[in-house]
Amino acid sequence: MSLLCARMEEETGMTELYSAEETARWKKQALTSRKAIWTMLAGCLIASIGLCFAVNTRNALTLQWTVIGLSTLGGWAAILLYFLRYRPAKAEYTHMEGILAGEAGEMEGWLTLRQERFSIPTSITVRKAELQTEEETFSLNVDERLASRMPEHPCRARIRIVRKYITAVEVLSENKPLPEGNQPVKHSSLAVDIQWDGRSDSAEGGRA
Prior knowledge:
Oligomer: single chain
Mean pLDDT: 83
Number of helices: 4
């Protein structure tokens, strides 16, 4: 996490989920992966063209299968690199840039990270969260890759929100207060003694 986010955590006590440094890391991965894909495809094309100039009647069949194999392997490698490295990185840094540029607001309430997930096409996977305040309950979103930084168990928390996404969280309490009707009743030991003495006196008077 960047030095700026570390300072913000010290000042506010909140765990920052997003940072400019992490956004830059995802963007660098996307650019590096894209360069690797184009380099791989260009290398396969140049090698195939070079083999075509070396063909003759004796090695034509061998070179033909060599070109086919090279093109197939290069194509599959580029496809795997695109889906496993480039597209996830591009989706992540695009999402983070939008969140960091958005207007933030803060809320406080009972926070629960749910198991429900859904994927946005060509973008990130989202995990649902719920914030219950005294007035109402809000349905919020958490980037699945950042969910590990969230509190595992329900707790009272102060959160920062941008476009319904939780960007920072501070745990205030892990004990949920009981409803008023379920509050434990506290008995005074003096009252119990008085009641017991009263029952004892009544019993003695009856026997007398």
